[in-house]
Structure formats: structure tokens, C-alpha cells
């Protein structure tokens, strides 16, 4: 009887520990900052969406013990809103709980994890809104859970932030398409009147 109670208590403790571990892994504050990240975008630089490129490089921080990245399987590189562009914008709010965090909404690339020599050159997409950004790399384990990260900015000093200038007005290709459509419409209308006039003349004869 006593042994059954002991087993029951041990089972509850193990379950509680497992639940706590799962929950803890879902908090940003519990992720290891074991990835070094750099970006070609300079602090304060203004980049145009749809035109400018940024090159992001990342690698494992070797100041961590060897083998500390043994569970790392994949990485996701993301474009993230800086605090100044989150103010009064709840839909960009930073939350410690990763499922509720809205800091990094724009994916740059997803790749298999490699400890070094990682790089990607990305053209800023046309639908990226005007804001101030930084780059963050998330690392995932085999269960697709975030376990580590790295980013280009220093949270305390707010450095390595760059701006994206959104596209405004009409694009040149739209103007060209509009002109072509207008010319086609005029030609079609002229052809229609010519055929109607010719048809009328033939009927009078």
C-alpha cells in the first residue's frame, strides 16, 4: 500500500516536471542566445521594399560548450519590428510567450541547422510595411520547438536597427500597362466604328 502511494506521488511529480518543462520551452526568456547574427543593413539605413537587398549571416556561438547545439535541427530567419515601431500597435506587440509574440512576423528563410557558414541574401518584399526593423534567427529542435535564438540588435542599446521605406504611389509597370490598355481601347473603338460605318454603307447600296 505504501509503495503504491509512493509510486503515485512520484508519477504526479514527474508529470508536473514534464508540463513545466514544456511550458518553459515556450517562453522567449528561456531560449538560449547561442546564435551570432549579422546583417548587411547598417544602423539607421533606409531600404526600399521591393528593391533593396539585405544579406544575413549566422553561426553557433563557440563560447557555448561543445555539443550544446546537438538538438538544433532547423532555423528560421525573420524580420522583426523594433520597439519604436511597436508603440501603440498591439498587433506588433512583444510577448514572452512565443505563441502570442508578434515581434517577428516576416519570414526571410527557413533552413536546416548548420553550425557555421550560413548566409542568405534576401530582397525586401514589396508588401513589407514602413517601419524600423532588426533581424532575428530562431533555432528549432526535432519537435519543431524554439530552443535558441540570435539577433542583430542589442536590446538594451537599441543598435543595428534599420528602416524599410514602403512603396508609395503607382509603380512604373502599372503606368505602362494602363497606357497600353488605353491605346488598345481606342484602337478597338475606332475599328468598331469603322466596321459599323462600312456595314451601313454596304446596306445603303
From TrEMBL:
Keywords recorded for this protein, A-Z: Cell membrane, Membrane, Nitrate assimilation, Signal, Transmembrane, Transmembrane helix
Signal peptide residues on this chain, from the entry's feature table: 1-24
One family name in Pfam for this protein: NAR2
Coiled coil: none
UniProt cross-references to PANTHER family, sorted A to Z: HIGH-AFFINITY NITRATE TRANSPORTER 3.1, HIGH-AFFINITY NITRATE TRANSPORTER 3.2
Name recorded for this polypeptide: High-affinity nitrate transporter
Any one biological process term the GO annotation gives: response to nitrate
Family the UniProt entry places it in: Belongs to the NAR2 family.
Keyword Transmembrane helix on entry: yes
Record-annotated membrane-spanning stretches: 176-195
Role of this protein: Involved in nitrate transport.
Species whose genome carries this gene: Heracleum sosnowskyi
Lineage: Eukaryota, Viridiplantae, Streptophyta, Embryophyta, Tracheophyta
GO MF terms held by the record: nitrate transmembrane transporter activity
Any one annotated GO CC term: plasma membrane
Amino acid at each position: 500500500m505504501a509503495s503504491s502511494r509512493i509510486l503515485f506521488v512520484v508519477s504526479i511529480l514527474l508529470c508536473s516536471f514534464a508540463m513545466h518543462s514544456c511550458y518553459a520551452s515556450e517562453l522567449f526568456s528561456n531560449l538560449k542566445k547561442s546564435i551570432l547574427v549579422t546583417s548587411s543593413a547598417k544602423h539607421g539605413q533606409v531600404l526600399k521594399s521591393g528593391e533593396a537587398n539585405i544579406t544575413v549571416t549566422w553561426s553557433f556561438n563557440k563560447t557555448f560548450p561543445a555539443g550544446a547545439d546537438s538538438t538544433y535541427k532547423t532555423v528560421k530567419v525573420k524580420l522583426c519590428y523594433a520597439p519604436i515601431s511597436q508603440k501603440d500597435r498591439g498587433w506588433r506587440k512583444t510577448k514572452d510567450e512565443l505563441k502570442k509574440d508578434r515581434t517577428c512576423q516576416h519570414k526571410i528563410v527557413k533552413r536546416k541547422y548548420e553550425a557555421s557558414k550560413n548566409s542568405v541574401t534576401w530582397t525586401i518584399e514589396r508588401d513589407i510595411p514602413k517601419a524600423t526593423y532588426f533581424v532575428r534567427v530562431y533555432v528549432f529542435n526535432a519537435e519543431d520547438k524554439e530552443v535558441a535564438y540570435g539577433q542583430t540588435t542589442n536590446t538594451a542599446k537599441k543598435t543595428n536597427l534599420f528602416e524599410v521605406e514602403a512603396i508609395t504611389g503607382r509603380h512604373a509597370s502599372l503606368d505602362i500597362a494602363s497606357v497600353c490598355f488605353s491605346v488598345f481601347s481606342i484602337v478597338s473603338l475606332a475599328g468598331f466604328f469603322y466596321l459599323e460605318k462600312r456595314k451601313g454603307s454596304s446596306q445603303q447600296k
